[in-house]
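Practice problem: predict the structure.
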Amino acid sequence: MAGEVSLDALPYFDQGYEEPGVREEAAALVDEETRRYRPTRNYLEYLPAVPEDAFLSPVLRAEYDRMMSRLPMELLSMKRYELPPPPAGQKNDLKAWADSINNSSAQLQHQATRIMNLEVMARFGANAYRVHNEFLQRMVEQEQRQLQSLRMQIQEINWQRKSEQTKAGAEIQQLESTWFALVSKNFEIERAIAELEGQIREATLYEEMQKRQQQEEGQEQEVQVEEEKQQDLEQEQSLEQEHEQTQEEIEEQEEEEQQGSEQRVEEQEQSDVQTNSLTMSDAVE
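Answer:
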């Protein structure tokens, strides 16, 4: 809302206002803000309109209009204090003479009234002025008492403000020291966390390296096992081939021996047949 100002200063507690450069810095801030401030054409438009002619009488309103129009002020008319005779052309006019006589009577009564007022003032004016002065004196005393009361209220407000600001300043100092301690503690915690995170990263990297090394060793072992298996398989295959070759050779030898034995048997049979035939032929002879 317009008109509200929020201050965050504690003038009864803050220090350093008299240090060199502070006033110049504050003036520079004010100048910088005034350069950025762009007031509207009517910056009081949120306020209600001022009733300028609320206390103006018709005479004052006419006088203000004359001054606004820059017209000269009319001179004081002294015609009512004059006793003019009838005009030259109305010397024998009874009505003109009656108007002159009435004007003279009115002037005479006005002067008589003024004399009576002066006599009454001379008789009672001193007491009236004395009473008026006493009334003014009582008004002055009442205003002075009211002024003294307001000054005491202002002093009490200032003392209360000073007490509140001193208390708030001490609390702010305590909170500020607590804040600094917590910030330092948070910094130490963050540093310890960073160190722990670094150690965790190093341990994680070391574990990953160990796992990778174990995996590589496992892979190497698996490769070696596979190679050994392959070598064993090749040896088994070579042994099987050798066994098959040996078996084939044995079978061939057995076949050859069997064929040789059969051939020998046949040859023996043939020789026996020949022998038998020879024996029979010999017997026949």
